[in-house]
Write a structure and sequence with these properties.
By secondary structure, this protein is α/β, with parallel strands linked by helices. It has two domains: 159 residues, P-loop containing nucleotide triphosphate hydrolases (Rossmann fold, 3-Layer(aba) Sandwich); 66 residues, no CATH class. Helix content is 38%, strand content 26%. The protein has a six-stranded mixed sheet, sandwiched between helices. Strands 2-1-4-5 form a four-stranded antiparallel sheet, covered by helices on one side.
Length: 234
């Protein structure tokens, strides 16, 4: 479904990604892990068109998307849930969700999609007239994911969905991610929570200093000695 081939990304003259390559197959959850500054978010931003690589190519369903606008990439079926949620705090939950379905099929089917999102996140139905800025961190993350799903993506990019959440809520968030996947949405998951993300993924990639240093099946990576030492403190 997604192929990232040897992309190099610069901020000015500073190189951030040094030849990243990865693949995501239809129906998978693929995790991208690494420490702060490893290049995880930059990789996601490149896939969603918010940053354009200086070298390399990105393909989605066999079509080159490297130089496309974020708008065109969303239209093709990729939705990006950004780190930090990036909601409109002065809009209601309902209005924030509707922002994810402004055109085409997503707009035509927004009521059906909204019903599905309220089944995933029942609390949002109760809060739909409430301003997003007044919600708890966990509820805001639900809105952010819901808004991403409103475009009816075939590939969902999740950037640090557990960041800032209370530990008691992290497990339920991962249950929701698995449910979204089993109901037909492929997921590329960027996380610092290495144990949780590798526990639910089919495959994983480890980034260090803008390059892929390890890759493999999630369960195998969890047993890797380096992963245990550096990321799990074992």
């Amino acid at each position: 479904m997604l192929r990232v081939n040897d992309i190099q990304v610069f901020y000015g003259e500073m190189q951030i990604l040094r030849g990243i390559s990865l693949e995501v197959n239809q129906g998978e959850i693929v995790s991208l892990i690494g420490s702060n500054g490893a290049g995880k978010s930059t990789t996601i931003l490149s896939i969603s068109g918010l940053i354009h690589p200086r070298k390399g190519e990105i393909e989605f369903n066999g079509k080159k998307i490297t130089d496309l606008s974020p708008f065109d990439i969303v239209e093709m079926g990729i939705s990006h849930v950004p780190e930090g949620r990036q909601l409109f705090p002065s809009l209601t939950v309902l209005e924030n969700l509707e922002m994810g379905a402004l055109r085409g099929k997503a707009k035509r089917e927004r009521h059906k999609t909204m019903e599905w999102i309220f089944q995933l996140f029942p609390i949002l139905n109760e809060r739909k007239r409430q301003f997003a800025g007044t919600l708890s961190g966990g509820e805001q993350q639900m809105v952010a994911i819901g808004r991403g799903l409103m475009s009816i993506p075939s590939l969902l990019l999740l950037d640090e969905p557990s960041l800032g959440l209370a530990p008691i809520f992290v497990s339920s968030m991962y249950d929701i991610i698995k449910k979204i996947n089993t109901e037909g949405t492929t997921i590329l998951l960027v996380e610092q929570n290495v144990f949780k993300s590798l526990s639910i993924c089919n495959r994983g990639y480890v980034l260090e200093n803008g390059a892929v240093t390890l890759k493999g099946i999630g369960e195998d990576l969890l047993q890797n000695k380096l992963i245990k030492k550096v990321y799990l403190g074992m």
